[in-house]
Each structure stands twice: as C-alpha cells, then as structure tokens.
Amino acid sequence: MNQANTYDYIIIGAGSAGCMLAKRLTENPQKKVLLIEAGKSDNYIWIHIPVGYLYCIDNPRADWRFKTVAEKGLNGRSLLYPRGRVLGGCSSINGMIYMRGQAGDYESWVQATGDEAWSWENALKRYKSFEDYHGDANQWHGKGGEWTVSKQRLRWPIMDKFRDAAVEAGIPSSDDFNRGDNFGVGYFDVSQRKGWRLNTSKAFLKDAVKRSNLTVLTEAMVTKLKIDPVTKNCSGVVYRQNGISTEAVIDSTGEVILSAGAIGSVQILERSGIGAAAHLNKLGIPVIADLPGVGENLQDHLQLRMIYKVNGIKTLNTKANSLFGKMMIGLEYLLKRSGPMSMAPSQLGAFAYSSPDQQSANVEYHVQPLSLEKFGEDLHSFNAFTASVCNLRPTSRGNVHITSTHPEAPPAINPNYLSTDEDRKVAAESLRLTRNIVKQSALAPYMPEEYKPGMQYQTDEELAKAAGDIGTTIFHPVGTCKMGRDDDPMAVLDSQLRVRGIHHLRVVDASAMPTITSGNTAAPTMMIAERVAELLTRE
C-alpha cells in the first residue's frame, strides 16, 4: 500500500461527530487524518439560510432520502427519514436547536456502561469546552468555543400567547433549557451565527482543512471496512469515488472511527461482517463478529403535530401566502438576517410532565406559528399554529438493517413507534395536555379550534389511534450501536466506544447512545465526539 494512503486515523462520515473529531485529532501535527464523506461539499446556499431546511430535506443534494417501513403504530404509514448526506451531515439539514437533555439522561448512561465519564458533570464540562454562548460564561455555559449558541432572531405574538397559556397551565417560564432540568416554556436557543445556520463543517472543518495533516474526501462512499477475519484487526476501509474502488489503511497504532450516524454506521458494519450472524448469513456476508445488537435498540422521538386554527391574530400562514408577504420576508432577511427566513423549524419550546407519575419532564413541545398538512406541502390558507409534542423517553424499540450488500441500497428502517402500552398512554396524555394548555385564558381571545387531530378523539384508545395518524419523526434516531457493560449481550460498544471483539475500530455518533436524551440530539452527539477526542489525544 502506498504510504500516501496510510493514516493514523480514518474517520467515516463528516457529520456532527466526524467534523469535530477531524479538528481535534489534527491538532497534533504528527497525526495524519483522513475524513471520508459520501455526500458533496456544503456549498449549497439553502444549507446556510436557516429556513433552507425546507429545500434540503428529501433533496438528494443533501439528504439520503430514506423512508421507514410501513409502521403499524402509525396506522400503516411510512415516513420520510431524513439523514444528512453532505459535509456537516445532519447538522446541515436539522432544526438547529441547541439542547443537551436532562442530567438524568447521563446518569442512565453511567448505569448502562458503569463508566462515570458519562455523568452529567463530566458531560457539562465537554459542552462548555466547545460552546460559544450568547451570554457570559457561567457555571452552565462556555464562551469562545467553536459552536455558537444564539438567541433566535424573531418572535411571533401567537408564540408569546402560547407561552403565557403554558404558564397558566402550570409550566414555568424558562430562559435556558440546558441546565440539567429543562422543565419550562420559552424560546429555543439555536445553532446559528449572525442569522446563518451553523453546521459542523463551518464550526470545525473550516479551520482544520488548513492543516496539512488532514485529507477530506467528498462523494466517497465507504463500501466496507478492512478487517482480518483471524486477528480481528480493522486495518482500513474500502471506498468508491468517481466509480473507482480504493483502499485506505491505518498504521499499526491507528484507528478507524465510524461516524456515519445511527443509520449509516449500521449499514457499514453489517456490510463488513459485523452484526447478527443470522441476518448476515441470509445476505451471504461472511461473519467477522457476531454482535446481535448492531441495528437494534433504535429509538426516536415521535412528534404529534396538533394544529389549531386561530382568529384575530396573524400567523405565518397568511404572511407567507401572498407575493407581497414573501417579498417582505426576503427583504428582511437580506437586510437584517432576521424574520421568517432566519427561523429554526420550531421557535418556542416547552418541556412538561404528561402526568404526575413522571419523575421529570417527559414530553417536549415544538411550537410553530404556521400549519400545513405535511412536510413539503404549502401552508394552510387560514391562520393557525402547530403544537408538536413528543415523548422524550419512549419505551418502544425499533431496528435498522441492510437488505442488500449493495452500498447504495436503502436499509429497512423500522422505528416501531407506539408499540408499547406505555408509549400509547403517554401519547394520549400528551394530546390532553396540549388541549389543557390551549384552553387557558391567554389564548381564549383567539378562539383556537383544534383542526388536527380533532375533538372527536376522546378516549385513550381513540387518542392513541389519532397519534398514529398525526405522528411523524422529529429526526432523532439513536441507539443502534449502543455502548454498554461487558455482560450486556446487546451492547455493540464498550464505554469508550470501541467495537467489541474488533481491534482499532470505534463507532462515534448518536448510535452509541444506550438511551435517547430528553431533547434534540445534535449537541449530545458532539459531546460524545468530544469524549472520544479526549481519549485519543491523551494517548
């Protein structure tokens, strides 16, 4: 093998974890790093304009365009399942919400792994290290890091009224959801810089690519890992670029780091012979490591999109449905980098208890001053807002597996939403909680009328069915290569994210989470990468 194709580290996937790792690992000029991304460069304007997610999701320029199988819990519906295929990965197409989750999430990781490195206190130190917070540095937030955390650059009267109604319903006002207990209602902080989307490519790669020890390949599809079936050593990767198959290897002390995401990392492991032997045998793939947990334990947040018509107050529906309104929206963004074009998909957030039985806030709201039938369609012609509510700690578990050895073949994604009695119960409670918020006096002057799912749904059984009709992914798949203790047969990784039974191979992305965090998952994925960077740069 040509020395030019030999590296200390090969990172597969330039997403939320991969870009950070590329920067951290190249801080040592003696270490040579290869970063491989299946997608293109992020030089696509709609990636950087915040509202541009509308033009990136389900667009092959930036999205793998996956779909789920027909879901029983969703009454037979199949969902779009967006995953970033571009520099920056999902951080180039996601909702830009900066959310760490709850302290208890990390304590559950400690229990799952036996490793105190994953405690809330240790995670908080990592968050602060890469954060550039809009306020002063304090016990909760850092200043001067690569990742800018900004306040949103717009407000809507209907959002303020929903916030007031939530307070009336017993949810306290909050100006910061990232202190370990996110119970409250307020505007989300966002991953933006001066009105532009911040993705991990800009935050981490922009400086790192200036270093001579980093090589970045785009439009390069990793077909499989190079693993010796006898020694179980992972020595590199095989990838295709411009129709040509090429190999890259690591030196004897190096590592391959798989950061292709909760879907992509499973695909690459299974194509390489790592996974459940029974499944690999069906596809004629020689088994290198029989790890039945690969592709299992899939968790995701299912949002239930409740829509309310309102009167006497304007929403984005009417503003964006006229030519003049669209022109004014564009002009405001051009001149001020503010207004609807600067907005994250959801502006107002709330974390609440679906019932008194919960130990901490277990549902999250994403509230929007608009409504539409489904993603990609036009806004409704009437004034309305959407209050999407999701179960933060679902007990349903799904799976994802390859169906072919062909690298471009889509996997079978089965989230298994609403498959447990507990999740159906929380869904019914969540819909009732939303109704309780909306009936408060703060919203009463605007005569909110439930458009979806509709007041005809009242019993637990009816509301669970309604949840299946209006539920959709909020794009937070995790857990498919979970870390865990040695005695957990479904743990794919140890607590340092090393693949069990294989040398020189780690999985560093959202798939490593044993349980999903209580909120949006981009920031926790970066924190996971920071942890592995600590391990590797101290060696």
Automatic annotation (TrEMBL):
Is Flavoprotein there in the keyword field? yes
Q: Which ranges carry the Glucose-methanol-choline oxidoreductase C-terminal domain?
A: 394-529
Q: Which residues of the sequence carry a binding annotation for FAD?
A: 86, 222
Q: Which UniProt keywords apply?
A: FAD, Flavoprotein
MF GO annotations: flavin adenine dinucleotide binding; oxidoreductase activity, acting on CH-OH group of donors
Cofactor needs:
FAD
Q: Which residues form the Glucose-methanol-choline oxidoreductase N-terminal domain?
A: 7-302
A Pfam family annotated for this chain is GMC_oxred_C
Domain of life the protein comes from: Bacteria
Family per UniProt? Belongs to the GMC oxidoreductase family.
**Protein name as catalogued:** Choline dehydrogenase
Tell me which species this is from: Polynucleobacter wuianus
